[in-house]
Amino acid sequence: MVQIAKKLFKYYLFLVSIFFIGRVVLFTLYFSHFEAQSTNIWLSFLYGLKMDTIVASILLVIPSILLTLLPKIFAKTVNFILKYYFLIVVSLAIFIEIATFPFMAEYDSRPNYLFVEYLAYSKEVVSLLLADYKLQLFFAFGVIALFIYGYLKKYNESFIELFEINFLKRALLFIPLVLILFIGIRSSFGHRPANISDAMYSSNRILNEVTKNSIYSIGYAVYSSLKYSNKDIQKRYGKMDIKEAIARVQKKLDLKKADSKYILSREEDSNFSNKKTKNIVIFVQESLGYQFVNAVGGEEGITPNLNRLSKEGILFKELYSNGTRSVRGLSGLVSGTFSVPGKGVVKRNKSQRDFSTIASLLKPFGYHSSFIYGGESRFDNMKSWFLGNGFDEVIDQEKFKNPEFVGTWGVSDEDVVKKANEEYKKLYAKNQKFVSVIFSTSNHTPFDFPKEKIKLVKGEPEKSVKNAVKYADYAIGKFIEMAKKEKYFEDTIFVIAADHNVRVYGDDVVPVKMFHIPGLILGKDLKPQVYDKISTQADLLATTLDLAGISTKYSIMGHSIFSDKKRDFSLMQFNDRYALRQGNEVAVIRPNTKALTFEYKNEHLYKAQNDESLQKDLLAFILVLNHVYQNKLFR
Length: 635
Prior knowledge:
By secondary structure, this protein is an alpha/beta fold. The chain is built from 21 helices and 18 strands.
């Protein structure tokens, strides 16, 4: 039994050593890019080991099964299979590690989806390699040839002796082996398994690329490509010529002068232009549904601070979220896009770089950008997405020193807003303009929060959604109270909005009312008003930039409420279904079924006569969202 474990561990060390050597070379080559970092750059090897362990553990699953669960009669067969399995696996690992260097030199990134896409153009790729990377190509094949020769001729690897161990003993080894590999693949004892965001521990993108594992990066690209292909979207939702789809979306969004290539991009002038643009803080509330906020039609007594503040700013009374997950809401509030089909852009491969965000928009204006989150920012791949798309800094749980309260999902919302306030004070003192996104954590099961901070809702269990919302509201009040005492307050626009409602439920094909969320914009000398027309998270972002005095070119799929181009509709994604609401008319498309039209009244959908134009508009949005994502046009 020990012999099997030793044999597998030997290959684990061999694979990890290959990855380690590649990382050492990259670290040396790109050292000048991050040597001045305040972050501990040597942690690259520790986090890198985690990524390497994930890959090596996955690659050892098949050998573990074959060596423990097959009887002795298959000894020669297994020996042949594993001998050439490891030959191929190690050769591939060597090739990819060497191929990483020219790829990194070309794209400042480890191999990703481009590496996979280019395989479809073999002629062009071969020509490129022979023209520009002939030396590297010959070196790779030379190293692989030496390995193959040594492996087959000198090393003479054999697994036959392992089958001399009693079959029952080998079978009993299967469970502990699988457990060890499971731990290796998961590489985390927390609530969430490790993923590529674990490599994004620094604000320096190159250092993060060095930390990654190339095979993991490629594997993720293949997975995404296979699961979310363009043809699959057309097959599932319906066909329409992409030119017609683009024309319909541009008309619906009133984009008369959109860019010819980046089809959503256009120049937008602020209605509040002044010499000094405002700072922007977007405080994203986890799962804060309208039903908890009296100011937008919800229950009394749960959000007293938000209700009070609603009289001091612009209240969006009919604001609707993109979807039902945080990644959908974040992309809406930070990028101003609707939900793409399939996995959200925060977790998708092609949107990890060069995807427009408020940070990338404001970078030319000299803004420092940050994402502040009390939990582990690798969750939902947030850290990777934010740092890859213009954000200068991610402040997450590990950067909070001596927090007052730590729950399942991270430090308390009060700890988060205190940290945010201190960061903003420092930036303002240096005359540094800033844009920041804060993401709350307390309103999430199991609803951990410091109960002594609020008066619990009568008749509700301590750990309940209503009490969690009330605590989140307490943190909102605390944050604005602190901000008002600071100098930066008068030069800052504050946005408070939910990523989505609490658990979306209902009998309707799309429960429209459960997409209803509160939205509020605050700022010194901002004239209070209630905006009661249908609006989206993209509209909220556009309005924020308008109020901040920002005139620029962007692809936000919405308009400021102060623009005559603002349209009263919302696009909602519910699981694999889409709904387009215009007034009280709602078109719905589900995969592989005909589109339907409903009337929305009394917070429910009722079947209505088909509105083919609205249904086509909905299909157009789905296809254009996919088209923009697949072709990296959201800039």
